[in-house]
What does this fold into?
Amino acid sequence: MEKEKKGFFSKLVDGLTKTRDNFVSGLDSVFYSFLKIDNDFYEEIEEILIMADVGINTTFAIVEELKTKVKENKIKDPKECRELLIETMKEKMQNKSDTYDFEEKKSIILVIGVNGVGKTTSIGKIAGQLKEKNKKVLLAAGDTFRAAAIEQLTEWANRANVDIIAQKEGSDPAAVIYDAIVAAKSRNVDVLICDTAGRLHNKKNLMEELKKINRIIDREYPEAHRETFVVLDGTTGQNALSQAKEFAKVSDLTGIILTKLDGTAKGGVAIAIQSELNIPVKYIGVGEQIDDLQKFDANDFINALFNKKEG
It folds into this structure.
């Protein structure tokens, strides 16, 4: 497992190259070119963070904390601010100890997100990882609007060697989830993972359907530990944050899956999402392979971003 984690850290370092080139190199030029810590110094840092999609609110909060630490530690040399900034970012992104409790409880996970973000693929990868931990996993093909989605999830179920509940294209998604809950109970399933339509966050009828699915889960499986993950495409930057806010209006989001971080210079959005929404980033993806989606670790993420080798 340690070898796998080190392997993913290397992929994370590589995957965050575009963000690092866009972001960390800019910060380093500030740390190493300024001769004193003044308002211009802080404004430069703010501008670089905002340009890296860290977000205005999160940027201001990070810089204010940096100012406080500089005063407390009586720091005069701008270069010494680099480690303080890294420390502050890690604090903003730390997950709570109960973030992955669903692995140890009878759980149902609803996975939502717009088309093209890697939702179905993420479900398959998580199912495979849970199966490796000897968990009994069941998938529900609740995205009935696209025949390809049902086929794709079935393929992932086969690859992960887990069962799937599916109906034909055009079926009522809520009926699929209902059948899956009945099956999960009768088969003594540990984790039921439900796919949903790649719903556009501005489509009211699709959001209403999501509410209907939630009502069925509440009614039919109230004893289960509930999770709702929204999958976001890291390449879309602040738009990913906007999507998460929209989904949060109709669903009690408990986690973020952030994909495609290897294809973007906007990896700073991970910091904005975690900080502004107060919803944990639970998984991050930096590639197509099954082990390229891993649990989020704030220390690893920031260390990889700044290309720091130490843990």
Observations:
- The radius of gyration is 21 Å.
- Residues 137 and 162 are 6 Å apart (CA to CA).
- Residues 1-311 form a domain with the Rossmann fold fold (CATH 3.40.50.300).
